[in-house]
Amino acid sequence: MTIASHPAREHQRLQALKELDILYLPLEDRFDRITRTLCRLFDVPVAYLSLIDDETQWFKSIHGLDLINTPRSDALCQHTLLEDEYLICEDMTQDPRFADNPYVTGAPYARFYAGYLLKSREQNVGTLCIVDTQPRSFSQDDLAALADIASWAQTELNLTQLSDMQVQLIGELDEAYQQARIDSLTRLWNQGTIKQILHRAFQRHLLNLTPLSVLMIDADHFKKVNDTYGHTVGDKVLQNIASALRQALRPQDAIGRYGGEEFLIILDDCEPRQAAELAKRILNRVRNLSFTDVAPDLKVTLSIGIAGSSARGLESETDLMDLADQALYRAKNNGRDQICLLHSTEARD
């Protein structure tokens, strides 16, 4: 395997990547939509959008493989960074740059690779790639389609989509601490971080009088899933739930894993009734999840408690969370697989 040399302007490239301030953020559905589209369009099993720093390739979205990052020395895309626009390899077993790469000689046994550069501040910061397990040709029309989708990805990459509160929080942390803010299984904010975001959101609500709603979400009968199918399947269920939740949200919404099978969603500038409509869509989305590859008969449902800042008597984000927690308890007590929206007067009943 040939390890690619660093690009001539590696320092400037790394600086542009740092200024994106995106490496250690949770997964975002705006990128997942792109990789899903690539897999459908080109009929390939694997597609990913990745950023490459001095030592590591970070996957901002990956479809078809369960990876968070990989050493730069193993990255197929390290060679694409040296190109002007793209790199196509129709059979990697015949190319000395790739022939003994661990992703060629081992799972997923990659054969075909097509990668298109993603730029920020005119620097090559990452790649958008498709991978197949069979050699294949790649026409000029195929290349044009990949270029169009790469342009879409590059636009998304250079947009600030997270809420100001989330961006500000990340900007205050050094890189090592930024990584510790992410839940390792679901790639969402962890409990400590989502609670900090909620605190900032509530302070903003008090200052600007903008509506604020929260969803407290629990996977129904999750212990039974683990007991019946094992923790590996349980982890897969949590990952799929997290993905379904991300897909339902606006870019500015915040989501975190709050506990074992609990999730917290913060909806800034959102009235409780709007939050309830979103929660109903989430229920339907999760009901339709399929686990045919690991547990064909498995069906998953959620219970969701909803609380809004318009509820009477709320003085802090703790009060808001307590109300959402009571709503969640009522949703589960009423039979699960449903939502419950509480106001403070109802919660005292």
UniProtKB/TrEMBL annotation:
GO cellular component, as recorded: plasma membrane
Domain GGDEF residues, every copy: 210-344
Cofactor: Mg(2+)
Record EC number: 2.7.7.65
Enzyme class: transferase
A molecular-function term among this protein's GO annotations: diguanylate cyclase activity
SUPFAM superfamilies noted in UniProt: GAF domain-like (SSF55781), Nucleotide cyclase (SSF55073)
UniProt-listed GO biological process terms: cell adhesion involved in single-species biofilm formation; negative regulation of bacterial-type flagellum-dependent cell motility
Source taxon at top rank: Bacteria
Pfam families, sorted: GAF, GGDEF
NCBIfam families: GGDEF
Name of the featured protein: diguanylate cyclase
UniProt source species: Thalassolituus pacificus
